[in-house]
Amino acid sequence: xxxxQIFIGMAQxxxxxxxxxxxxxxxxxxxxxxxxxxxxxxLLIDRAGIRAMQGDSRGAAADMAxxxxxxxINLDDPAQACVSRSxxxxxxxxxxxxxxxxxxxxxxxxxxxxxxxxxxxxxxxxNEAAAAYRTATELAPSNPKAxxxxxxxLKSAGQTAEGxxxxxxxxxxxxxxxxxxxxxxxxxxxxx
Length: 192
Known about the structure:
The chain has 192 residues and is mainly alpha-helical. 71% of the residues lie in helices and 0% in strands. It has helices at 2-18, 23-36, 41-53, 57-70, 78-82, 85-90, 92-105, 110-122, 126-139, 144-156, 160-173.
């Protein structure tokens, strides 16, 4: 239900904010949430990532195995997982980790950098998002989604003229270049 989704979203946000500075507290927050929603994939994949960071490979593997049982998301292919809308809905942190793995393998893939930029934007990491979009525009100078994303980040950073120019240029070559930004980042529904 909607209350459970809000609770889970709050637990994920808390864990995401704590994982760099205090991963043990981040894991505790997710474990506490899992005590109420034991088979919630989003919590499992986030806790798996934090457990792996802390060197708990057995705990991470158990959480990941349960996540895979509950979902049909293929985490064995980082490039596919990176662009998976389903993984994005479960965990932006996990989707970003998959993008980073995919980029390690295919560093010249502009589409992966575009997706990474969008994920960073969704995580409110605008400076990093701008850098990802800038890399994408360097790899594929005519890509409208890369231009639109970079323009959006520049505009939000106060570089309005340059941002608007890039966004206008992108939309003139592809009217759908900004469609990812027209969908809500959070959706609350009756389905868990």
